Amino acid sequence: MAASDRTQTRCARDPRRDRSAHQSNSRYSTVTASLLQHTPKTRQGEIALRAALTAGRVLQKKFYGAREIQSKGFRDIVTDADFAADRAARAILQRAFPHYAILSEEDKTSPPRAEYVWMIDPLDGTTNYSRQIPIFSISIALTRRGQPIVGVVYDPLRRECFFAERGHGAYLNGTRIRASNVADMDRAVVGFELARLPKLRARGLEMFTHLAMQSVTARIGGSAALSLCYVGAGRLDTYLQLTLSPWDVAAGILIAREGGARVTHLDGKPATLNGGAYLAGAPKIFPEFLKQVKSFQVNVEG
Hints:
Mean pLDDT: 86
Order of helices and strands: EHHEEHEEHEEEEEEHEHEHEEH
Number of domains: 2
Strand order of the largest sheet: 4-5-6-7-8-9-10
Radius of gyration: 19 Å
Number of helices: 8
Largest sheet: 7 strands, mixed
Shape: globular
CATH topology of the largest domain: Fructose-1,6-Bisphosphatase, Chain A, domain 1
């Protein structure tokens, strides 16, 4: 990459960095111990958890350090931490399951046709991370024939690990989570993320404004994987994003669904891993949420 495309950002030595490093092992042990309250049903689930927690330690240790930032495209960046976390997760997954394919945000090479594919976003919320905004996660999913069967989303700074295996519910640090019982938009907390492309961003903001005006409040977090988990945990009641990739959503979709939420595309059809626009919502509010989204599209495009 040309020097003009590479930016080196240096941070003054921060006492929080030293404190974070000293606390790293104890934090990792605390999360691991809490997860033991819910033993994964499969070896794939166990390995996915191990990979996510290990990659999370990498992100935590690097958070207050100097950042090397590269441009990947329009409004899209990658840091040295993305690559380091990707290597850490990949090493564990490949060692345990050498015949499984891997698709990662940092290596978009199409994997060979395989029954099982790991989907990794080693740092979901890279812009937040690069600015030391503490909202980001690592997302790891295992798919079988295009369907997620294991999902882990780990927030290393908050030590929150969301986990699900298909058919066995969703968990946060070993405790079962469920979507909210909110049924009305005027009681809802709405989540949203910004698209990169100008036209989609403008359209998304119009749609978001339409929904936010009816809700209690609205949030833009910066990590799609976490937002999907928050719907499954009852923290958010609805969520909307117009441009997501498979590695962004594979784990979050499973966790949200296992928490009782619905996840679809804009037309209301069940979400696939083909990328694009996604809606998620608690079961009672989702029909009204979907109705509002569709009515907005008709009003704008009709």
